[in-house]
Amino acid sequence: MAEDQLDLGDDRSLLIVDDDEPFLRRLAKAMEKRGFEVEMADSVAAGKAIATARPPAYAVCDLRLEDGNGLDVVEVLREKRPDCRVVVLTGYGAIATAVAAVKIGATDYLSKPADAKDIVTALLTPADELPPPPDNPMSADRVRWEHIQRVYELCDRNVSETARRLNMHRRTLQRILAKRSPR
């Protein structure tokens, strides 16, 4: 699909909700170049307000925002416009949050850093089709990290309980959690 020939339909409205202002502006600019009519929000409250007043055809929403959880915006979007195509982004990628995002009505879930091409592909892939496989699949280290994050979230972010369940020393787990996710 060429960038200037995207089939966005009649309604090209796109809501982007992210509290990382430089990322928000860059993504908005990239999406406008691809033909979307972009509206930006930097908080859950602003995202919910726009979703209620002017429900968009498309949305990109960060999972963790300063004032709460981006899934709250997804819920409002599903309520106000059930056909809205929503992609949830996060810098804290974990399988558990991906499942929660999809259950609540997100079309897809991408880990940051996701570029505009990945986001457009996720937004425009028909619901009955699987998205194309990634060009760069997760490494074994990344899969391990995802599993640790999932268990950590299931233990309500309790390091001691997570370490016990993973049969790992608590300090080792703390070192792993302090590092950025592997690529």
From TrEMBL:
Domain Response regulatory: 13-127
An example Gene Ontology molecular-function term: DNA binding
Keyword Secreted found: no
Highest taxon listed in the record's lineage: Bacteria
Gene Ontology process terms (BP): phosphorelay signal transduction system
Chain segments annotated as coiled-coil in the UniProt record: none
Keywords, in A-Z order: Activator, DNA-binding, Phosphoprotein, Transcription, Transcription regulation, Two-component regulatory system
Modified residues (4-aspartylphosphate): 62
Keyword Heme annotated: no
Pfam families: Response_reg
Described purpose of this protein according to its UniProt entry: Member of the two-component regulatory system RegB/RegA. Involved in transactivating anaerobic expression of the photosynthetic apparatus. It is a transcriptional regulator that is responsible for activating expression of the puf, puh, and puc operons in response to a decrease in oxygen tension.
PANTHER family per the UniProt record, alphabetical: PROTEIN PILG (PTHR44591:SF14), STRESS RESPONSE REGULATOR PROTEIN 1 (PTHR44591)
The protein, known as: Photosynthetic apparatus regulatory protein RegA
Organism: Aquicoccus porphyridii
